[in-house]
Amino acid sequence: MWKLIDISEAEIAAWAKEFGEKARFLIDEDLDPALAPLLADRGYNSKAVLDVGLAGHSDEDVLAFAKREDRILVTNDDGFADERRFPEHRNPGVVIVPSGRLDDPGVIEAIASMLPLVGHYRPMFTGAVVKVDRHGVLSITDREHESGARRTSRYRYTKSGSFYWDPNGEGAG
C-alpha cells in the first residue's frame, strides 16, 4: 500500500541543506549512448563509459573509475547490486535502469523518476543501489542512518511532484 510522503517546505529545505548536491553521472556502455548528452542538456555533469576509454573494461574498473570521479554509475547491469562483489565502501552509488533506447516509454519513466531524488541529493546515494523499474518505482538499498542497518525501501515519484513510500513492499507499480 503506497503512502504519500507529506513533508513541509521547512523539512525539504533542511534536507536540501544537509544532502543537496547535484549528482555527477557515469553512463555504462550497456545503455543508450544518447543518455549522457541528454543528462548533460539537463544540467548534469555526465560522462559515458565509451567516452572515457573504458569500453570493454571489467565492471570493477568501471566502478573504480566512478568512485575516483565521484560519479553515480547508471547501468542496466544487475551485477552491480552484488554487495559481495561490489561492497558498499567501494560503491559511489549505482542506479540500475531498464534496458532499452531513450524512445522507450519505460526507460524514459525510469530516468525521469530517479532524477528528482538521485540527481539532486548526491550524498544520500553513496554506497546505495537504486533499481528503477519501467513504472518509475525506485527500490533503494542503502544504510539506515539511525540504526546503521542495511535496508531496501520502495518509492514512487509522480508527474505532479509527489513522492510515495511503500512501507510494506507490497505496492503495485
Offer a concise description of the structure:
This protein has 173 residues and is of the alpha/beta class. The chain is 24% helix and 23% strand. Strands 1-9-8-7-6-5-4-2-3 form a nine-stranded mixed β-sheet, with helices on both faces.
Commentary on this structure:
The chain has 173 residues and is α/β, with parallel strands linked by helices. It has one domain. It has helices spanning 9-19, 35-41, 59-68, 105-118; strands spanning 3-4, 24-27, 45-48, 72-75, 94-96, 129-132, 137-143, 150-157, 163-166. The chain has a 9-stranded mixed β-sheet, with helices on both faces. A hairpin with a 5-residue loop joins strand 8 (150-157) and strand 9. It is globular, with a radius of gyration of 15 Å. The N and C termini lie close together (11 Å).
Write a concise keyword list for the protein shown above.
173 residues, alpha/beta, nine-stranded mixed β-sheet, 9 strands, 24% helix, globular
Summarize the helices and strands and which ones pair or pack.
Layout: E1 3-4, H1 9-19, E2 24-27, H2 35-41, E3 45-48, H3 59-68, E4 72-75, E5 94-96, H4 105-118, E6 129-132, E7 137-143, E8 150-157, E9 163-166
Parallel strand pairs: 2-3, 2-4, 4-5, 5-6
Antiparallel strand pairs: 1-9, 6-7, 7-8, 8-9
The portion of residues forming beta strands comes to 15-25%
Category by helix and strand content: alpha/beta
Strand order of the largest sheet: 1-9-8-7-6-5-4-2-3
By DSSP (H or I, 4+ residues per run), the number of helices equals 4
Unreliable runs: none
Largest sheet: 9 strands, mixed
